[in-house]
Design goal:
Blueprint lengths: L12 E4 L3 E13 L2 E10 L4 E6 L3 H4 L2 E2 L3 H11 L10 H14 L2 H11 L10 H22 L3 H12 L12 H6 L8
Antiparallel strand pairs: 1-2, 1-5, 2-3, 3-4
């Protein structure tokens, strides 16, 4: 079965499904046994990892170029939609979310973000749901950051702003009005 030839260039950002966005450093030839194999060397700076992918297995591994800005915008728009039905037990849904995150597909990442995002400032999340949400958001933000030439934290914030995700409530924050009214007297009694 013929496959299309993926054409990557040194210095190009690429997406490896299970790791996110990395930069193609070079293509090198390695000898394994008595075979010479061309390997793509990809640096994942955020994970402090270098990955070598055989050139002939790149497509099969799911390695792909970055999405277009238009496709990323469509993914973010789909994450604004109504959360999907939650009829499955959590373990099955979590496994599906994990599979979507590891697919590297912006639309599947958007599904996870859509289903797990907080809808109001008082919404709570389980630890595992929060971890899945943050991983999906980070994968989307990695690609968004490179496409829009911004840092990862700014990209995450921008995506959450677009989606209208409420900010975390800082329980230690003191409102300015409370400080001004606090004259040492106890008026509440």
């Amino acid at each position: 079965m013929p496959t299309k030839k993926l054409d990557f260039k040194t210095g190009q950002y690429v997406v490896y499904p299970t790791q996110g966005v990395g930069k193609l450093l070079r293509v090198e030839e390695q000898t394994i046994g008595d075979q010479k194999i061309k390997m793509m060397v990809i640096d994942f700076e955020r994970n402090h990892m270098t990955l070598r992918v055989p050139l002939e297995r790149a497509e099969l591994s799911g390695l792909r170029p970055l999405s277009s800005v238009k496709k990323m915008d469509e993914a973010i728009a789909s994450a604004k939609g109504k959360a999907g039905a939650k009829r499955m037990i959590w373990a099955r849904r979590a496994a599906q979310y994990e599979e979507n995150i590891n697919s590297g597909d912006p639309m599947k990442l958007a599904e996870v973000v859509r289903d797990l995002q907080r809808r109001s400032a008082t919404d709570t999340m389980t630890f595992s749901a929060r971890q899945l949400y943050l991983r999906a958001l980070e994968r989307m933000a990695q690609e968004f950051a490179v496409l829009h030439k911004m840092d990862l934290d700014a990209a995450s914030d921008k995506i959450e702003d677009i989606l209208g995700v409420p900010k975390e409530i800082d329980l230690n924050a003191i409102e300015e009005d409370d400080e001004e009214d606090d004259d040492g007297s106890d008026n509440d009694e």
